[in-house]
Amino acid sequence: MDKKKVLLGMLVICVASVIASVIVYIQITPSEEYQIFYTRSGSNAPTIMKNRFVGIDKTVTPSEIIAAPAPDGDIIVFYNPRLEYKDPDNVVIHRAIGRTFSEGKWYFQTKGDALFVPDSWAVPEDYLIGKVVNFNIQPNPLIWGFLFWVTIAVAIATGVTSLVLFLLIKREKKVSPKRADYVV
Length: 184
Description:
Shape: elongated
Helix content: 25-40%
CATH superfamily of the largest domain: Umud Fragment, subunit A
Order of helices and strands: HEEEEEEEH
Number of domains: 2
């Protein structure tokens, strides 16, 4: 077998592995425009059940939010307005049922679909994270597991390929003609 063809094949595999790793990384990384959130409560049942994933559009502006009772109002994701700071571990996913403009800022009245009374707070526009655009995403564990193992396999393949490529090149450099081969 020609060593140059083997080395070229190994190099192609190495490059393909790196490209595949980048593609997998891009597929599982949230973007600036779209993100997936997890619901911890059933306050929006039956629209969004407890322990579900929802996709949100983070590019929506406060003036685009439709505020109306269920099922017409938009479901929004926002930082808990009872806190004095925006805690990413304490977000709320409720429907916007009212909207007012005061002091140069939009404020939203919210309510969970399963709750009988509206929330006791007004959500300022700067606490808005986004609008729910995809309800009840069902993550497929087989796909997520597959992506995990593909990433691991790509990393191992890249490492092994690089090692083999390095050893073949090193071995090729060490091969030199023997003196006896030159005797005429």
